[in-house]
Amino acid sequence: MLLSQCTWPEVEAYLKTSKGIVMPIGSIEQHGPNGLMGTDAICAEAIARGVGEAASALVGPTIAVGMAVHHMAFPGSMTLKPSTLIAVIRDYVTALAAHGFERFLFVNGHGGNVATLRAAFYEIYAERRERHGDAAPDLRCHFVNWWENAAVAALSRDLFGSAEGSHATPSEVSVTQHLHPEAIKEAAMEPHVAPSGTFFDARDFRRRYPDGRIGSAPSLARPEHGARLMEAAVQAISVQYRTFVTAE
Ligand SMILES: [Zn+2]
Fold it and tell me: What is the pLDDT of residues 210-228, one digit of tens each?
């Protein structure tokens, strides 16, 4: 169930049965020579929708642009500053909390959002405490990175081994190929597996990783692998969602 496709009486009825909501958050940024700019937003949204179906949960609007300042040396990449993204997350949560939502599970598609998600949750808690003290209504925010669960990790390892890497991974590219077969791209990549390591700012990122990949071989991506990875992610995160929503 998508919030954007519900009427207000439907949302009112839902809130009588559940206070939980699934919130997709992604990024619009370069994903190497064959990966789509929207990879992280596309994966997070589709997996969140799958969780919504599997767990009968409402799914909020996708926060499509994330914190990706380190990708800005590649054309097309977009970013919100951490402070802007904190404000966006806070306002999304605060708006929905005003109607009675209490448990927010963010399905995250982008590692670069992690620090900002954590900061945003503390910003929300701090603001509510300032305003209401101990009387603040119950509110819990949590995020899961869709690739960080035992089922997806095991499947990625089986399919791609150490060529999974950490950016523009064959797993995430496979998921987008499954969802958008019309947008599958071919590109030559040299070396087959990209170098891995760390980076500082955007210019340093491009200097170290000239085609945008880190440690990965996304030419191994296949739509059929994406279908399996997506199913594994939906199953695992549906269990996490149910536990999160029903926990004391
Ligand atoms: Zn990504």
Answer: 999 999 999 999 999 999 9
Distance 99 CA to ligand 1 centre (A): 32
What average pLDDT does the segment 161-176 reach?
Answer: 98
From the CA of 213, how far away is ligand 1's center (Å)? Answer: 10
Q: Which residues of 199-235 are buried (b: 16+ CB within 10 A; e: fewer)?
A: eeebeebbeebebbbbbbbbbbbebebbebbbbbbbb
Whether the model pTM is above 0.85: yes
Nearest in space to 159 (alpha carbons), one of 171, 173, 144, 142: 171
The CA 168 to ligand 1 mean position distance, Å, reads 6
- Contact by Cβ (8 Å): 103, 55: no
Give the pair of three-digit tokens for residue 86. 């904190």
Which domains does the chain possess? 3-242 (3.40.50.10310)
Output the six-digit token pair for 248: 């004391």
Residue 178 identity (one-letter amino acid): H
